[in-house]
Each structure stands twice: as C-alpha cells, then as structure tokens.
Amino acid sequence: MIDDGIIAAIASGYVESAIGIIRVSGKNSIELLKKIFYPKKNTFEPYKIYHGFLKDSNQKIVDEVLVSVFKSPHSYTGEDSFEINCHGGLLIMQNVLDLVLKNGARLALPGEFTKRAFLNDKIDLLQANAIVNLIKAKTQKALDIAFGQLLKKNTTIIEELREKIIFLMAENEVLIDHPEEDLSDVDLNKRLLILNEITKLIQKLLKFSEKGKYFFEGVNVAIIGKPNVGKSSLLNELTGHNRAIVTDIPGTTTDIVSETLNLNGIPIKILDTAGIRKHSNKIEYLGIKKSHEAIDEADIIIAVFDSSRILDKNDEDILNIIKNKKNVLIVLNKSDLKRKLLLPLNIDPIEISCTKKTGINTLKSRLYNMLIEDYNESEVVSLNTSQIIALKSALKHAKKIKKAYIDSLDPALISIDLQQLADYIEQIIGKIENEDILDNVFKNFCVGK
Q1: 230 marked among binding-site residues
Q2: What's the farthest any 2 CA atoms get from each other in the chain?
Q3: pLDDT tens per residue across span 176-191
C-alpha cells in the first residue's frame, strides 16, 4: 500500500501571500532538491534551513528561497522531505511547483502527506482526524480538543477497551489449548462482567464522539412557533444583532433565516423558521414546508409561544409536532406582559422577553447544558463515519459474544468473534486493509496536508 514516490504540493494554499510553502516528500526527494537548488553548501543536514536559488535546466533563476530539510524517519511523513519557502506570489509559487514536478515529483492528492504519515506509523487515525479538526476548527474550544486528540490525551477509553478484549482473547486461548483441563480462573460471571464493561465503554465512546461532532461540525438549532410569537426577535437577541426582519405583521418570515453563534466553544447554526399555521397563500405554504424540513434536520428545537395569549389551535399543532422530539426547549416570550397561556403540567418552560431583553442568558445556559450533558472534555473524540460504523458493529458483536458465552459455545468459535471485535476496535486507531476505505478517510484534507 505504501507509495514512496516523490509528491509535491503548495502547502500554504494557492492564495497570494508574503511567503509561499511548497512541500515535497518521498524516497530520493533530497536528490531531486540537489538538481534544482543552489545554496552555498550542497550537503544537506536535517533540521537546518538553507538559503539559495532555485534554477531550471537552463540555469535561469526561478526564485530566491529558504529550504528546510527533513530526513527519514524524523519527518512529518516519516520519509525524506523538504519544504521550499519562496515568495508568495501566485505565479512564483506555481513556477516553483512546476520546477519540482518537472524534476521527478508528481502532484500530491488531498491528504496524501498525512496518509503517508499514517502508513509510516507516525500517527494513527485518531490523530489524523485531529489534524483535520485543527485546520477546520471554528472555536478555541474545538482547537483545544483537537490538540488534545493529536497529543493522544483523550484515548484512554480506547486503550481500556483493547486491554479488556485482549484479556478475554488470552483467557479464551487457554480454554482452546487445554480443553481437558480448566486452567482458567475466570468464570462465566466474570466474562459477562467484562463484556458488560466493554459494551459500556463502546457506548461511552459513541456518546463522546457525538459531543465531538458538536464542537467540530456545529449544531443546528431550529426556532419554531406560530406567526408573531417573537421567533425573529429571539434570533436577533441570541446572535446580538438584527439579522432577521421584525414587524407586528404575522407571517413576515417566509423563508429560513440562519445565523451562527459561538456558544461557549460550540458553533451553533440558528434557524429562524416561518410561522407554522394554516397557510393563506402559496408563498407562505412553501415557507411552512421548509420549516417542517428544518425541524426534521435540527439537533435541538426551540419552540416559542406567546405567553400573553391563550393557547389556540396553532399552539396545539406546535405541541403535537414536538411531543415525540428528544431535544426540545420550550420558550415563553413576552413574559413582561400579563400571562394568559397555560401549558401542560409536564412542560418546564423558559420565560423570556425579547422586548425587555430578559431570560436570554438563561435560555443560552439551558441550550448549552443540553448539548454538553455528561460531557468530559478530556474524553471527547472526533471520529469519521467509517470509525463510527465500526464502533456500532463492535457494539452488536459484543452482544453476540455475550450470548455465545451464555450458550456455552465452543471456545474456538468464540475466538473468531473475539478477534472480529478486536478488529473493529483496531479500525478506530488504524487497522484498515482496504485501500478505498483508507483513501476515503483522507479525502477531506486539503492539498498539501
């Protein structure tokens, strides 16, 4: 699977800047450098920066540059590599890259440098995900979590999982090797106890990966309610500026209005939806249709009611929409007026007044607490889709093994299932034999990384 050919890319991005960086890596990359780079000293020592000129085959100067050299295995990719710091003009960077490509390199694919780092055992897949998140982080909290994952500060759950599975595998091998003698001091109850612990750890890892998704991918929050209850006013108060048009005319919002809020490190995309009621025209019908779509896609729903008016049919429709939804916050707006609205007893509403600007911080606090329930920053991880699928498969497999123990199946058969369980957990860190799956892991990286 390892391609050690020379790859190159503009690592600083194809944008005009003061300095541009062209990254090159692969077997014989230092020999390539000697063909095009003319410093005062042509013997390259690692971890030093050399000043000189890049020249083409006709000895024409392409640029005056600084070059840093890295020798295998002590480089980002684990291979011989170098980086050219040139002037940051678009044409200069392209000329430098073309010069490298003409002398034996090929253009790197997105994420190929990091893929080589993984294949050369410089990083595991958890750290690869962390690198993506470092680049894409939108908040300081997301950046801190990504650094923790890169430095392997939050992989204790996975290590604990591996240890417990290895223990069961080793104990099962004793039963296979000595079928006539009961040399194991582990009884059925202890095996089942360990499997229960494995199941809980997998569930915990899935839960914390969901928290990681919030920090790195953000959360969709839909504000819903009948017309003229203050949805647009609430959007403006949450975001701190007048993003949505606010009038006394019901049905002003006919399309989804969105704005982003940084809520204690979590990027929140707030959607102000059209008021839900029996539509009066086609435009309003389309707006209400989009509101229902936003409700289905939202991670959290904020249902807004006018506390100064009695409950009506439109309010009841809203309550019916949210009754089977998991993450819902009920908000009573216009709390500065006399309250006339009566809600079912099992509802714990948040009273606010957009006019008086009260209760907004309480709403933000409730929203944040709903997102980070049972949250532990040191254990939050970011997993890609294939890793989450592997975890869910591991969860099902653990239950299958538990049944096999209870049914007293042959240890040789249980051994196969234990190995499969171990393989699923290994996929989280990096045991992937399918090249297509591996390519898919790194496709979301930018070129040059």
Answers
A1: yes
A2: 86
A3: 776 666 555 667 888 8
